[in-house]
Structure formats: C-alpha cells, structure tokens
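Me: I hope this is not a bother. Any chance you could explain this protein sequence and its structure tokens? It all follows right here:
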Amino acid sequence: MRFKQLVLGLGLAVAASQPAFAEDVAICYNCPPEWADWGGQLKNFSKDLGIDVPQDNKNSGQTLSQLLAEKENPVADVAYYGVSFGIKAKEADVVSAYKPVNFDAIPDGLKDPNGSWFAIHSGTIGLFVNADALEGAAVPQSWADLLKPEYKGMVGYLDPSSAFVGYAGAVAINRAMGGSLDDFTPGIEFFKKLKENDPIVPKQTAYARVLSGEIPILIDYDFNAYRAKYKDGANVEFVIPAEGTVAVPYVMSLVKNGPHADNGKKILDYVMSDKGQAHWANAFLRPVIASAMSEDAAAKFLPAADYARSNPVDYAKMATAQGGFAERYLSEVR
C-alpha cells in the first residue's frame, strides 16, 4: 500500500512540474525571432490565440533534415522555409495538405494546389550594407564590386549549401553572371573568386553581426535591411545590384502527424489572415496577399525602378537544381 502511495505521489509531483496548459502549444521549426520579425509574430500568437510557439533558430536546410529524421515520430507542427525546401518537404511526404484562410487569394505558382506548402511572404535578394563599417570604402553597387580588394574580409553570405537565403543569393548571382538553373558554373566561378576576398560564411541569420559591423556587407533580403534602418536606426543601405537579382517566397506547411495539429492549423490560419499578413508588411516583407501592404509600409521600400532589376524564377526547377548546386559548392568552393 505504501509503495502505491509513493508511486502516486511521485506521479502527482511530476504532473505538477509540467506546464499547466501544455496543450496550448505549437512547435514551429525555423521561426527565429531575429528573422522577418518572427519575434513579434510569436507574441501575436500568444496574445491573440493563446498558443505558445517557442523560438526556433534552425535554417531551412536544418528544418527539412529534422523533419526527415523525425518522420516516424514528428515533433514539429508547422514548418517555415524557403520555397525550394517546401517543395522538397512535400516530395519527402513529411507535410500534410492544408488550405488556410485566404488560400484561394494566393497567386498560382506560389502554392501547392493541395496546400502542402504555400507562400506567406517574399523578399528580394541584394546587399545589406552597414555604411559605418566600410572603413571609408563606397557602398558597393553591383555583384562585381564584391570582388574588389577594398571589400576584402567585409562580405558575408549565408552558407548556400544549407540556408535558403544563401542558395537564393547563389541563384541571383549565377543568373547575373550569365548562368541558369541548368548551368551553375558562372556562379561557382564567382564564389571561387569571392573566396579569395576572405568572405564570412555563417550558417544562420547574421542580422546582429551586420548591425555590430562585424559583417559590413551581407548578401541578404531587403526586409532585414529595412528593419535595421527603420526599426533599429542603423546607418544601413539596401542595394539591388546593377546586374539584377531575384525575388523569392518563403512558405509554410502543416507537418504530417504533428503532435498539436489543431494548433498548427490555427497558426497557419493566423499568418494568412488579414492581420497576420499586415504584420509581415509592417516588418518590411511583401505579404503574399498584396492588399495587406499599406501605403506607409510600401513607402519604406526602394523605388519601383530599383525593383525592376528583380525577377522571379522557376521555383520548382530551383528546388530540383538545389542538390546539384550544393554538391558543387561544397566540392569546389568551401
């Protein structure tokens, strides 16, 4: 009898140590607070939905790898990643079809028809420059400028074999140098030359390192530069390189057999709601529902003439080509 009482007491003690509302949780892979104002959106989930979504600092490649590793026993409920990784997640059967609020308003090409992935916002690749950290050098205006000796040790880019923003930057550079999704040789040759200029190559978001001046020039999205300028008051500029660039979407998916699937669906509905989309616009991203972009938010972007140098890409083909590019980058550059 005393043994049973002891076991019961231990069970009650363990239960008391657990969160009181553990069911009011959703796990999102790759929702880093320093990226795209996910920090603010996570607070919105808690305030408006009563759902706690912990911060997660994975990148897109790490997210997909984790989903694959946990396929038989999923931990995450939703995932956020660059579009090519969303396409690969569907192919790997680690996500479920789900059509959130406003799904029908998402343009064709920016969603899987069944809802296995769908764009929530997009960004344009360019140069995020801390002007105070250039040591007297001019703000670079082109991809070719990054190879100049005055920028030695100043240029950073996220690892393109893992982080989606790194791969998107490689796609932009490769196309600007005359390559295509069938031929990455011009881009590989560019990265070989850039390696001689001692670039900094982190695996995850490097926003704080640009603000501190540790990375004066980062190949990154417009929204991070605008955030630094308008929210953090930093002396930064965003440059769309003269040779051209790409605009690419970030997408979300419902994880297959996630432990808190209903909460995961609520999170996806929220990010696609008018309020959720307005949050992205106010964080300097282009919401996939264009009407969510206010005039005030749009006014903080570079002029349309600059964005005319930004072009879309075949995202399905971009996903198909990603593995081959990563192999070449790892064997020929890194």
About this structure: The first helix runs from residue 2 to 17. The domain at 28-122+248-305 is CATH 3.40.190.10 (D-Maltodextrin-Binding Protein; domain 2).
